[in-house]
Specification:
Length: 431
C-alpha cells in the first residue's frame, strides 16, 4: 500500500500514514495510538533538542517519502551479505522478512524465529513487546512503536545453547525515497546462550532510505548473549538504530557496534541492569569519512547492587565527517558495589573533521567504583617516524597505527570468522 498524500510537514505525512495503515498493523492498536500521541507531543527532534543537537534531522526528512517498502530481491543479489559461514541467516528487506532468502526451514532445539507480525499472538511476545523501549523517552521510539510493520521475533528457550550464530541481515533497497520502521524482539530465557549478529547493508539502492529500527532484547537470569551490530550502508542510507537491552541477575551481555559507512547513522544503545551480579561489556568502533555523520549514544542503567559494566568506544574521523559519542552511566541509590568504567578515544585525520564527545556519570550510591575518560588527537608523529625509519612508507605506517588503534575493539569480537570479516572491511577503508 503506497501512500502519496501531499502534506506540509513530515509529521503530517507520518500521521496520515498511520491513519491509513491502522487496519494492517499487528499487535495492540491502543498501544500504537498511544505511541503516535507521544510522537506528536515530542515532535521530530531538531538542534534545540539536547539529545540531537549535533545532527539536522529536519534536513534529512525533507521531500517526499514512500512507505511502501516491498522490494523483491534475488538470492544472487544478496550473496555478499551472507558473510558468516554456518550462521542462521534471516533476511529483512526494508524491514520485511523474506522467507525465500532466509534459513527458515529448521532450527536447533530451543530456538524459535519468526516474523514479528505472526508472533503478535505469542504469549512470550505479549509479555515483552514494547515493555523496555519507552515511547516517552525518544520521538523515534514512539514513531517506530506506532508504525512498525516488519521485523523478526527470536525466542531462545530456557537452558538452550545455540551453537550457530543467528544473523539478522537488514537490507536497504529502493528506487524512490523510502521510510522504513523495522522492529525486532529477542527473548533469551534463563541460562540460555546465543550469539547474535545484526548487519545493515545496501543492495540495489539508488534512492534515500530512512530506516528507524528498534531491537528490544530481554536477557533472563544466567543467560549469556554475544551481540554484534555492523552498519555498512551506502551514501543513500540514513539509519536511526535503537537497541534496548534488559538484563536480569547473573546474566552476561557483550554488545559490539561497528559503524563502517552510511550517510547518517545514529546508534542508541540502552542497557538496564535489573538484577545482581550482572556483567555488561559495550564496545564500539566508528570510521567516518567524506561528509558522513555518526552519532553514538549509550546509557548503562545500574539498578541493583554488585554489577559490572565496561564500555570502550573508538573513532577514526576523516575528511569533513563528524562523529559524536555521548555515553551515560547511571547508578541508582540501591546499586551499591557497582563497578562501571567508560572510555572514548578518537583520532582526527583531517583539520576539517569534527568529534563531539560527552562521557557522563550520574551516581546516587556511595559504595561504587566508577570512572570515565575521553581523548582526541592525531596520529603520533614520533611513531610514524619510528616506523618509517624501519623501512615503511608513510602511508603504510599510518595504516599500521590505525589498525593497532582499532584492534582493541575488534579483538573483543569472539567469533573468529566475523572478526576476520570486519578486519577485511577496515583494511579496505584505510586503503
Amino acid at each position: 500500500m503506497e501512500t502519496a498524500i501531499k502534506k506540509n510537514t513530515i509529521t503530517d505525512k507520518l500521521l496520515a500514514e498511520f491513519e491509513a495503515s491502522k487496519p494492517a498493523l499487528f499487535g495492540d492498536l491502543s498501544l500504537r495510538e498511544e505511541a503516535m500521541r507521544s510522537f506528536l507531543k515530542q515532535g521530530i527532534p531538531n538542534r534545540k533538542s539536547e539529545e540531537y543537537k549535533y545532527v539536522n534531522i529536519d534536513a534529512m526528512l525533507k521531500g517526499e517519502f514512500s512507505f511502501f517498502t516491498y522490494r523483491p530481491l534475488m538470492v544472487k543479489q544478496i550473496s555478499n551479505t551472507r558473510f558468516l559461514k554456518g550462521a542462521i541467516n534471516i533476511v529483512l528487506v526494508n524491514g520485511r522478512c523474506e522467507e525465500k532468502l532466509s534459513d527458515m526451514t529448521s532450527f536447533p532445539k530451543g530456538l524459535e524465529i519468526g516474523y514479528i507480525a505472526d508472533a503478535s499472538f505469542n504469549e512470550v511476545f505479549q509479555k515483552h513487546f514494547s515493555k523496555y523501549a519507552d515511547i516517552n523517552t525518544d520521538a523515534f521510539i514512539a514513531l517506530n512503536t506506532a508504525l512498525a510493520n516488519g521485523g523478526a521475533f527470536i525466542h531462545v528457550a530456557k537452558g538452550a545453547v545455540i551453537e550457530s550464530p543467528i544473523h539478522l541481515i537488514n537490507i536497504s533497497s529502493a528506487e524512490e525515497s523510502t521510510f522504513v520502521n523495522s522492529r525486532n524482539l529477542i527473548v533469551v530465557e534463563e541460562n540460555a546462550q546465543v550469539k547474535l549478529i545484526e548487519s545493515f547493508e545496501s543492495v540495489d539502492c539508488t534512492a534515500k532510505t530512512f530506516t528507524n529500527s528498534i531491537t528490544e532484547m530481554v536477557v533472563e537470569a544466567g543467560a549469556i548473549v554475544d551481540y554484534t551490530k555492523i552498519e555498512n550502508e551506502n551514501e543513500q542510507g540514513y539509519l536511526i538504530n535503537t537497541t534496548q537491552v534488559y538484563q536480569k541477575e547473573k546474566s552476561v551481555v557483550t554488545a559490539n557496534t561497528i559503524t563502517l559507512s552510511g550517510s547518517f547513522v545514529r546508534n542508541n544503545l540502552n542497557v538496564a541492569l535489573d538484577g545482581e551480579h550482572i556483567e555488561t561489556h559495550l564496545n564500539g568502533l566508528y570510521l567516518t569519512n567524506e561528509n558522513q555523520v555518526v552519532d553514538n549514544h549509550t546509557l548503562v542503567d545500574h539498578r541493583k547492587p554488585n554489577c559490572n559494566s565496561n564500555e570502550l568506544y573508538k573513532g577514526i574521523i576523516e575528511d569533513k565527517s563528524s562523529a559524536t559519542f555521548n555515553g551515560k552511566i547511571f547508578v541508582r541509590i540501591d546499586a551499591q558495589k557497582t563497578n562501571a568504567f567508560q572510555s572514548n578515544k578518537n583520532i582526527l585525520l583531517s583539520d576539517e573533521g569534527t568529534i563531539n564527545t560527552k562521557p557522563q556519570l550520574e551516581i546516587y550510591a556511595d559504595d561504587v567504583k566508577c570512572s570515565h575518560g575521553t581523548s582526541t588527537g592525531k596520529l603520533d608523529a614520533d611513531k610514524i617516524f619510528y616506523l618509517r625509519a624501519r623501512g615503511l612508507s608513510e602511508i603504510s605506517a599510518k595504516k599500521l597505527l590505525m589498525h593497532a588503534f582499532a584492534s582493541e575493539v575488534v579483538d573483543a569480537i569472539k567469533i573468529e570468522s566475523l572478526r576476520e570479516y570486519i578486519e577485511e572491511k577496515i583494511s579496505k577503508r584505510f586503503e
